[in-house]
C-alpha cells in the first residue's frame, strides 16, 4: 500500500471531484438561497420511502486505480466553518473542485475530512425533499431490478441524510448536460447538485466521538461544499468513455457494470492541487501536506441516484 492509499484510508475516504461551471441563472439562484449545500463528484443519492434522501460516497472497493477523498469545504471564518470544526489545508486549490471559485484566494477556505462521518441536514418540518435534480444518473433504470446493497450505510465512507429542502441540477464540467449512454439507456448527466433551503435548517455532523452541529435560522445564509475528489490513475484519460463509472454499480447487488459513453464529450483540465487530508486536530497541517498533488483530470465525474421512494 503506498502512502497516498494509506493516508486516504486513515484520514479520508471516497469520491471523485468535478469542478463547477455554473450558468449565470444558477449562480444568481444560489446567491438568493438562504442555505446552499453544493454536492460535487462521485456519490449516489438514494431516495427513501418517506422521500428523504441518503447521500453515500463509495466505500472500500475492488477498483484500485483511484484514491477517493470525500471532504467538506466552507469559507474561512464563517459560522459553518467554526461550528463544524474545519481547518485550513496548505496547497489545496478550491478552483480545482469548483470553477466558480477559480479566481478566489485559497486562504479563504477551510476543510474537514469526511471519512467515517455521518451528516444530517434537516430543513423545516417535513421529511420529503423536493427533487428537481433530473440529471443524476438513474441507476434503477440503468440496472433495472437490482437492489441497493443492504450495508450501504456501513460500507460508504460518508453518508449525508437530507430532510426537507430541495435538490436542483447544477453543472461543474463542460460535458455536464450532454446525453450519455449506458448501453441501450441514455440520459443527460450532471456532475453537481445543489441542496437549498429557506427554512430553519439544522446540520449535525458525527465522526467517532466527535459531534458538531449548526443551526441556520430562517432569514440567515450559509454555504457548504460536500466534495468527492478522485486522484486519477496512470492510464490515458478518455473523456468520451468513463471507466470510473463502473464504481457506481457497487452500490447495488449483483449488478453488471456498464460504462457511460458520450461521443460529444470533450473533457476539461483543472489546476493541480493538494487533497485536503485534514482532521480538526493539531496534526492537520502535516497531514494536508506531503506530495498529494494530482494532475488534471479530464473526464466528467457524474452524480448518480436511486429513486425507489415513488414515481418521478
Give a brief description.
With 312 residues, the chain is mainly beta. Helix content is 12%, strand content 31%. It has an 8-stranded mixed beta sheet with strand order 8-19-2-3-9-6-14-15. A 7-stranded mixed beta sheet has the order 5-4-16-1-13-10-7. A two-stranded antiparallel sheet has the order 11-12.
State the end-to-end CA separation.
44 Å
Low-confidence stretches: 1-24, 281-291
User: What is the C-alpha radius of gyration, as a whole number of Å?
Assistant: 18 Å
Shape: globular
Helix content: 10-25%
The SSE string, one letter per element, is HHEEEEHEEEEHHEEEEEEEEEEHE
Task: Please identify the structural class as seen in this structure.
Answer: mainly beta
Counted by DSSP, the helix tally is 6
- Across the major sheet, the strand order is 8-19-2-3-9-6-14-15
Major sheet summary line: 8 strands, mixed
**Percent range for β-strand residues:** 25-35%
Provide the domain count.
1
According to DSSP, the number of beta strands is: 19
Q: Quick check: average pLDDT? A: 82
Task: Outline the structure in words.
The chain has 312 residues and is mainly beta. The protein has one domain. Helix content is 12%, strand content 31%. The strands form 4 sheets. An 8-stranded mixed beta sheet has the order 8-19-2-3-9-6-14-15. The protein has a 7-stranded mixed beta sheet with strand order 5-4-16-1-13-10-7. Strands 11-12 form a two-stranded antiparallel sheet. The protein is globular. The N terminus is likely disordered.
Amino acid at each position: 500500500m503506498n502512502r497516498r492509499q494509506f493516508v486516504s484510508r486513515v484520514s479520508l475516504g471516497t469520491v471523485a471531484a468535478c469542478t463547477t461551471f455554473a450558468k449565470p441563472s444558477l449562480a444568481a439562484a444560489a446567491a438568493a438561497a438562504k442555505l446552499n449545500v453544493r454536492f460535487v463528484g462521485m456519490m449516489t443519492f438514494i431516495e427513501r420511502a418517506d422521500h428523504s434522501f441518503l447521500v453515500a460516497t463509495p466505500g472500500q472497493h475492488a477498483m484500485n486505480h483511484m484514491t477517493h477523498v470525500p471532504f467538506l469545504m466552507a469559507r474561512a471564518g464563517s459560522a459553518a466553518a467554526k461550528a463544524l470544526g474545519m481547518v485550513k489545508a496548505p496547497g489545496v486549490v478550491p478552483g480545482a473542485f469548483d470553477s466558480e471559485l477559480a479566481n478566489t484566494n485559497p486562504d479563504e477556505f477551510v476543510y474537514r475530512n469526511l471519512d467515517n462521518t455521518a451528516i444530517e441536514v434537516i430543513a423545516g418540518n417535513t421529511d420529503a425533499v423536493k427533487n428537481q435534480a433530473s440529471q443524476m444518473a438513474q441507476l434503477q433504470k440503468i440496472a433495472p431490478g437490482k437492489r441497493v446493497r443492504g450495508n450501504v450505510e456501513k460500507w460508504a465512507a460518508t453518508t449525508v441524510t437530507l430532510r426537507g429542502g430541495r435538490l436542483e441540477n447544477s453543472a461543474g464540467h463542460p460535458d455536464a448536460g450532454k446525453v450519455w449512454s449506458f448501453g441501450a439507456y441514455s440520459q443527460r448527466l450532471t456532475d453537481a447538485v445543489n441542496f437549498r433551503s429557506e427554512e430553519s435548517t439544522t446540520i449535525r455532523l458525527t465522526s467517532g466521538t466527535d459531534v458538531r452541529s449548526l443551526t441556520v435560522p430562517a432569514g440567515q445564509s450559509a454555504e457548504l461544499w460536500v466534495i468527492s475528489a478522485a486522484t486519477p490513475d496512470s492510464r490515458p484519460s478518455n473523456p468520451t468513455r468513463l471507466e470510473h463509472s463502473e464504481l457506481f454499480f457497487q452500490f447495488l447487488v449483483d449488478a453488471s457494470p456498464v460504462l457511460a459513453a458520450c461521443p460529444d464529450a470533450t473533457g476539461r483540465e483543472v489546476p493541480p492541487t493538494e487533497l485536503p487530508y485534514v482532521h480538526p486536530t493539531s496534526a492537520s497541517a502535516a497531514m494536508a501536506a506531503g506530495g498529494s498533488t494530482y494532475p488534471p483530470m479530464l473526464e466528467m465525474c457524474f452524480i448518480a441516484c436511486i429513486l425507489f421512494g415513488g414515481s418521478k
